[in-house]
Amino acid sequence: MADELGQSPKNWTETQVSNWLISIGVNEKYIKKLFEEEVDGEILLSLDEDFLKTKICIKLGPAHLIIKKRDELLKSQQKHQEKEKPDIANETQLEQENGPKSVQYQVASEAPSAQVHVGDLEEIQTKEDCKPRPFDQEGVDHLYVKHRVLQPESGAFNLIHPCHEFKSLTVAVGLDRPRLQAKFAKEVLKFATGCMNIRSNGTIHFGVMDSREDTGYMHGEVIGIPVKERDIYVDALNYIERSFSSDAEHVRQCVRPPRFIEVMDRESTEKMYVVEVDIVPSISIVKSKWYTVCLPNFNDATNKVKFGKESTLRRVGSKTEPVLDKDLSEFIQRVKDRDAQREEAERNQFHNAPMVSKDLGRKLKMLMTSGKKFIENDKWLIFVTNKFKPDDLCQIDWLLNTKIFCVFDFDPESKVSGLCNRYLQHHAANMHSLQSYRMPSDTSIKEFTSNLYLFEQTSWIFCNGRSDVKGNDTPCEEMTWIKTKITLLRDSVSLICKHILPKGAFQVIFLLTSPVEKPLLHTFYEFFTDMEGHEDIICICESEINFLRWQSYAEGSCGTETVNNFSVVGMKMSHVNATVQIVQPVKACTSKHLPVFVKGICLLETNKEEEMASLEILTVNHCDETTQHFISKEKANVEQEFFRGGRVSWLNFWLAEHKHVGEVIERDAYKDVSKLLKNALKYNAEQTPVKSITIYHHPGSGGSTVARQVLWKNRKDLRCAVVKPSYSAAVVAQHAVDLREYEEKDPQSCLPVLLLIEDSDKKYLDELRNQLEVVINSKHIQYGTLCFIFLSCSRSYDPERRCKESPLQNVPVTHKLSAEEKRMFVGKRKVLEEQYEHQFILTFVLMSEEFTEEYVQQFVKHLLQGIDHESAVTRLIHYVALLNSYVPNSFISQSHCEALLAFKMSMERFHQYEFERSLSDQAKLVFFHLRDDKTYIKSIRIIHPIVAKEILQQLLGSQQTHSGLAMKLLCENVLFQHRFGKEEYQSFLKALLITRSRISKGDKCDSFFSPLIEHVCKNEKPNKAIELLREAFKRFHDDPFFAQQLARLHYKYEMFKEAEHWAETAARQLPNNSYILDTKGQVHKKWFQAKWKAIVNDSEPNTAKNTADAVKTALKAMQCFQDCKRAATADMEKINNSGYFGEAEVGCNLLKLIFSLQLFANGARGHGECLRYLFSDYIPEELKDDWEPFHGCLKKLYKTVEDALEWISEDLSYFQTDTGVDEDEIHLSPEGKINNSLKWLANISSKFGRYLIDSSSRTFLQTGQSTATNLTPIQKRIVIYHLGGGNVTSILSKLGEEKGAVDTLKKILSLYPSNPLISKFDQREIVNYTLASITLNCLSPMAPKVLSLKVLQDLCRQFPADKNKCLPSSLFLLTLLFWPEDKDTNIERENKYEVVQSAVQNMEKGYWTKMKDIPPRKRRLYTHFFLGSGNGLDKFIHKRKFDGLVKGTSLSEKRMKWLSGEVWKKPEIEKLLKRVSGWTDDGVVYLEGPQKQKFRIMPLHLPSLPHSNENITFYLGFTFRGPVAYNIVVNK
Asked: pLDDT digit string (tens) for 401-414?
């Protein structure tokens, strides 16, 4: 209102006119009528009474009021223009200096919601009014607030209502005791005599300003005085006996002792008081008397008190004056008249009309429901409370049945014996202090709320410490609290009201169950100012005495009438309890039940349920607590919301099941999932403890409905729950185990838990599975017991294809309906169309039409007819359609929408209704209103993503572009800077511009940029995309990830200079981010490739001069990739190998360029010259100058590339290399995605060798000669690389080649010396030679080139004695080759075990370094060989030998067959492999055999491990971590 009233009424909008009408007290129905008639400021000025009565149908009284107040307003505006008020200006300035909060004031006659700021209108007081303390009442806990104003001094009114006199005493209070007492006594006795003589009650106030004597203050302004010793004022009344010559006893009876009323000052911690003395001249005391007094005065000259002349005093108006001698006789004669008046007044005082009972029950219900029929779960409740009485604690069922966000508790004993203690018996809550709500500057709101578990469990804030906890947060008295904790309170309230919960999403209830102290009053002030009013504040107080102190403080902020309107006073807690429960949608303290293993049910306690916060648990009697009242009123709304596009709720199923509404259609997919679930539940001794079923669905096709339907139908036979997003797999696993074992006697005998997991990637599911298996194993659950079933629901562009990959696990849900489904949809549609209007079942209608392109086009075309393209609402439709088209599950919060539409509505009760009314007809049809299940924050999206895309296309037409619209959205300041939901909104904007499409995430394809950027580049111009990203970079405060995108976009279109600039910009901000450093490397790599291409296309021969620039760029790229490697190695939470891949690729291409120089192109001689340059200190003259800066790097080039390839090979040796693994978001992913690392490594290794091969080597390769005696060691090494023998992974990949692998391996081995034992091999050569021999033996056991196991063992003895210096592949070979054989003697066996165990200890260290802090890598440990039943090298069976035996349509399915043990049942495998013996001890597997030291073997699949200590046999696998145990079987 402040801004509205400050501007000219002529410029007011319809809403501003409505707000003004509220402020002058016009009836709500007339306000709505004028709003509907679009009366704005200009129209308001032209109205007259006649028009209002005849045309608008407003009654005479309100019409007259409107015109009168309008004219007064105009006059006041004119006065404002004529002269400025300096005092108001000063006060405004003072307010601005004091802080950001502007206090709102209210005129007494205002309606509750009309609030205006200081200085808006001349008529409005500049300071808040306050009421005096109730007269002559004992035990009243009153309070004054500094600078509030009492009503002016008054004379006698009806003798019972007291007259008032104000004295500041600000100077006298500094005097010594005698002087102060004399001054105080003089003023009191003067006032008392005046009151007694006219028989009127009265109160004299000290510490209240009288403007006649106190300039700069308002008359009646409360200031307060310091009171160090109260007895000074009490004893001052001893002057009565000395001042009255007779009747002193009467005076004593009429003058009450001084009362000390505390003055609250928000800006000061010093205690100040108003000292008040009541005068009560009861007729029984003063009858027939008049009083004369000698007033005391302190004489400074004599330093003594002197008494003045005796005088008769009386009250005249607001003053006390002496009775003049000429009037004394008449005054005395009228004593009898005054006595009669007093007697009559006292008699009437006790004969008032009997008290009429207020309808507090209705008032409480109206406040709690915001005027609706029942309390809706669309608002969080915040309670502010003090100490509860024991009896009241038994009457809080209503409170236990509400959704509480937090409690501000001022009772330090609450956890021990108060409200908190009682609450914790029924609910889970987190104990916090005010300090807990201090948000660190580097923490986002999302992180903060997550850390405090806000929205999940009630936050119990102990505002005045806790008596039961040791520490610094101890209880303290009022003034200490104000000094130490008021700032913390202010920050806490501000954080909640301004950043966590938007206005309208919560209600604050003050439960005043004990005397009210200052901290509680401060809390009201903070909430009132931060909530910008009282709309959502309720006060409940049983004691009227306690309420008076609260009221005296609160009414200054929002007026007496308003305080009374939002307060329920005098209602017992038991009555509150019973009354509120009537309007709650669910019954209080209802029991929830879970099924149990023995086919019964158990009670699920609410606090235990809330402790499992990561799960939404579905109970046997879910929704049974819904009241009949709620069902009858709301069932149609619940059904409409679902059929219009809302997510199905449990209430939908419950209402259908109980025949309150029609049934929910069971689609074919429901039957398919049910069948898979039934099969999964069949007992199988070999089954895994965790099984998975996946529903792949088109967005908006009903996949989530099918999944929830499955849970609903199985809730009585299984324990069912939905996994909430944003919880870690470890937390979910712990809660899932708690749910499984809840109230069960034996962990071995529990019902399986069916977990619905929506929109989670494969990594999360794998991690959750692993976490559960670890817990299951630790609890010794018998193998073969089904414990958990994952029902995963994932979005997919092609659900049917995904399901063909694994038909026994996956079920598709698409927009296409089967014949049976069509029949059901058509029937249901007819029923719904009879019940509801078309717009209420839009999505169901579209679904029944299968979202066909033609139908959707026609629907949208019809919908958009007549739309106002210039309106703000249409602009909003544009924005929502853009987001919904490109960002899955996106929305815009209603708070953002209101900001964009400049929507203002002060009538909170009609807020939602008015917002929806402000939308256009088109928006009402296509917008679906969401409400976050957790935060209750409202938002909007378009009813379906397919509809959103079509709306976007038709609205934009041919004249507008996607980039133009995105630019408008990005530059929409109102949306971008809006406070509530800011993080989420901005995350959608980032996703729109950055997040790439991923097939693994359910998208149509893998894209290089976000779908919007791809669309702009393809259908508009790349420059438009660049402009868009540049603007985003600025808008998001130079966000380095937008700079990274700009670098990528520029290098894609070969704008390398600009790409370099943006890559450098990103790297400057995040110098240790390996992904940004990789982008920097990619820029120079692509630049090098472009320069190399230009050189190739040029007809000029390649010289050092014309290639120098390209070489420089290539080396720069390699340097960037080396920086990327270093950053990736230091990052313990992410894996990024792209630096090694990039370095190897650029290095190989650079070699190719070097060999293409004219200098090195002349046959064998030139090639030899090049090798000499690369492998020695030799530098040809032709290169010396032009390549002078590069010689050092180029001479290390071979070694650099070889080391990079070796690192990649080693990494692939540790971990499985399945393709199709999900990657992180775009800015966390390598640029060049390597789809098949094994293939890439084989190809690049071959290229690396090929570039270096000379004519002699080529002859050897072409002729196929068996020896290579004429080749130099360097040439042989190069040829070995070219043939794929240069690293472990390339050699082992030969096992998967169908043709030529045996011949290739023979060639590789022929390039090594015939007697390797006497050759001086380095460590890497020994590894490659040995592995090539083992691989050849696997493929062709009779091959002549293969040496015996004994020779290879002797060769491996040349590895360094210090195992810390051994390569991981060297240690792997030691475990493999030195594994004992049956024929070994005990001594030989023990010696070999010693070698193997020493190697394994060092392998463990290397493994943990490689794995980092990334659990998924642990489960991808790769087994290269198994121990077979043969002898010598024949005992090593490579895993690829089993590939033909393990049938599965997907990699994950094959892996599950390995882990489940299905593979081991095949007789072919039993023949091939050898079982070894061992035993288990406390869950650890030991190998039978070693005598000196126990040999621990890691079981690769924990669930197969027996839980008791047993003798076992198992198959042995060899990994780069050490030997592992497969298929553990207990000896019978």
From this structure: 898 999 999 999 99
